[in-house]
Write a structure and sequence with these properties.
eight-stranded antiparallel barrel, globular, Lipocalin, mainly beta
């Protein structure tokens, strides 16, 4: 039980879960946009790829992280910057909730995950082990990596994916997965 709690804790630490969302002009809520993770160490950009949502690390405060714990040895040297962590989220029965998978680079595992808009600028991100042992945190909406300067966060680095057109991001995600 303790090991499972540590895994959940690690799931929500650092770059493991950085998600970025924004709402569209439509009446239905949307997670699309950019989100600062709870500890302020990363921004995740969330894009709509034909009704499936993908979240990628668009900015990290401490550049140079790698996916060292990936079970696929060929991916262990890839940068965490630009890496997908919210994988194929789809709208659930609740109009402000999307479900899919969350990849945690801190332990190399993929978890069942859910994200919910709990306000215009707050996204609740939750990962689960065995479907019922869940942990989560709230992320805050930001407006690009330039938001880091305004937040007083020194350093940091943005990924090219941060400014790519959504269609190009989706093409890359669908090609990889």
């Amino acid at each position: 039980m303790c090991a499972r709690r540590q895994s959940l804790s690690a799931l929500f630490g650092g770059v493991g879960l950085a998600v970025v969302f924004s709402t569209s002009g439509s009446a239905a809520p949307s997670p699309v946009g950019e989100w600062m993770v709870a500890k302020g160490e990363a921004i995740i950009r969330l894009v709509d790829c034909g009704g499936r949502y993908w979240g990628l690390v668009a900015w990290e405060q401490k550049p140079g992280g790698t996916d060292a714990h990936n079970p696929n040895a060929a991916l262990r040297q890839r940068s965490t910057l630009g890496m997908p962590i919210l994988l194929g989220l789809a709208r659930s029965n609740n109009p402000a909730t999307w479900s899919g998978h969350i990849y945690n680079s801190q332990d190399g595992r993929t978890y069942e995950g859910h994200v919910s808009l709990v306000g215009a600028n707050t996204l609740h991100v939750q990962g689960c082990v065995l479907g019922f042992l869940c942990g989560g945190e709230n992320w805050q909406r930001v407006r690009g990596a330039s938001a880091m300067a305004a937040a007083g966060k020194p350093g940091g680095r943005s990924a090219a994916i941060a400014t790519e057109a959504p269609g190009r991001v989706c093409s890359e995600m669908l090609r990889r997965h």
